[in-house]
Every structure is written in structure tokens, then in C-alpha cells.
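In the laboratory, one determines a bound structure by crystallizing the protein with its ligand and collecting diffraction data. In a computational setting the workflow is compressed into a single prediction: the sequence and the ligand go in, and a structural description comes out. We illustrate the idea with fe (ii) ion.
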Amino acid sequence: MHPTTFDLFADTEAGQQPRADQIGEQSWVLRGFALPCVDQILTALEAILLAAPLRHMVTPGGFSMSVGTSSCGALGWITDRSGYRYSTVDPLSGFLWPEMPEVFSELARNAASKAGFADFNADSCLINCYVPGAKMSLHQDKDEKAYAAPIVSLSLGLPAMFLFGGFARGDKPQRIPLLHGDMVVWGGVDRLRYHGVLPIKQGHHPRLGEQRINLTFRIAG
Ligand code: SIN
Ligand code: FE2
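The predicted complex, in C-alpha cell form:
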């Protein structure tokens, strides 16, 4: 079970200063970028997760993912025994994924623009929920129709150690700590870099409790 209610009245990270860290030729970590709109993001996210609950999807190899997953937007990323792909409908309900809230698309567009990618209009937002111990193995985002658009990701809740690698699985990745409100944008020459997340450490976040939620915005179709 994943907690889907957030304490919207907990303290914000008032001391966190906005800052951009370059982690690749066309890759940036935008520190605290989402903090000004995080309340609206969390409110919208709660509604989405009521309509399209988190579930543990199964990889083509038959393994259940450690993250709980859902989506919003025109296309949602899914996996099952027949493969990784995008779908216009939530396989759990048979209905279209919930619409992408304006506050999501606007935040993603602003982050992309800050990182040098204009006119980013995401058609997909993947929601990944990590409880302590959950992780994401090194992978490339390759299921999208084209790679011209960047990947835009938002971290919420518990801290994570993001792995940002090279173009071969074996390339030693940079270790990048990500906190609540941080955004990562990678695209252009860096679009197909391997990346992943180390197992989330036990902890308690004032807003989200014992979980980390990552929103990944993409142009998939
Ligand atoms: C992903 O690459 O699918 C997730 C990245 C993250 O959780 O930060
Ligand atoms: Fe990814």
C-alpha cells in the first residue's frame, strides 16, 4: 500500500536557494525549482492517484517493479509481460489516463526552458512512487517515438541518490543527490544517457512521509 495523502501544512524548505547545477553538456539539476508550486502539484497529484492508483507493474522478464507506478496525460508508460510501451488507456481501469494538470505542464515547460529546451509540451507524465528500499536500475528512456525533446523530472518527498551515467550501461555514473522540489532536465546530446536511482533510504519527509515520488515528463508520441 502506498500512502496517497500528503500533509499540505508542513513547513516548506524555506532556506533552499534556487540554483542550477550542470551535470552534462545539455543536462541540468535545477535545485528547488518546483518549491514555489509544490502545494498545487501535490493537490493535483492526489486527485490523479485517486483516479489512477499506483500499482506495481511487471517487467517483460516477469519481475514486479519495486516502484509503484501511475501516469497522467495523453500517454502513460506501461510495462507487462508483452513489453515496455506507451498506452492511451490505464490498463487497470480501461479508461484514458487522467488529464495532465496545467500546473504540471507549465512547471515542466518552465524547467525545460531554463535548461535550454524551448516549447516543451509534455504529453506524458509518469508517476513513480518509491518507499524505502525501492530503486530504479540503470536504463535509457528509449520508448518514446522521437528523442528530440528532453526528459524533465521532478523529485518529491524523501531524498534520492540519482545515478547519471554515460551511453553504455557500464560507464561509471555520477551520483547526484536529489531533494524535494529539485528538477533534472536532460536532452539533446545527453538524451540517451543511462540513469537510475539507488535504493531509497529510510526516512520521514514532512510533506510526503515515508516515500519519494518522481514525476517524469516526456514527449512520448
Ligand atoms: C526514471 O528514470 O524512470 C526515474 C528517475 C527518478 O526517479 O528520479
Ligand atoms: Fe528513466
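The radius of gyration is 16 Å. Keep in mind that any predicted model is a hypothesis to be tested, not a measurement.
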